Amino acid sequence: MKVPANDGSPVHVPRLIPPRRRSAVGGVYAATLLFEFLVKVGGQAGARRLCEQRTILVEAKSGLLALKDAKRQGQASQYRYRNGDGNPVHFRFVGVLDLLHLGVECQPNEVWYSIKEYVRPTERRKAILPRERDLSAIRNERGVTPRKAQR
Fold it and tell me: Domain span at residue 112?
């Protein structure tokens, strides 16, 4: 089944595979995406911004393909509007915070999101987001243990 994203492009809705029938690679992944509400007042954006952490389900043959689809869905979810004071607001995709392969440990109906404040999240994305190779699903599929990010 496909549903439209904010930009009108179709987004595939993953099949909810029963936990006992899931394999070690491929299937359903949970991607935690980071978005920011960038409000410009007098043409300037404040440093502290309200941010959304959104977890989506992605069905893919591997962690790398799930990451690619999660990024596409994050980009497609961006939008702009004017707030009640007439200031432009940009809801922007910052990046992927985590990517998990959903195996037997996860119930098919689990979902989660969070709203937080960050200081300049887009400008600091390298300090906030983990390296793609350190995202759980990609690291586990390669059998590599994570190293500390070198910032």
Answer: 14-124
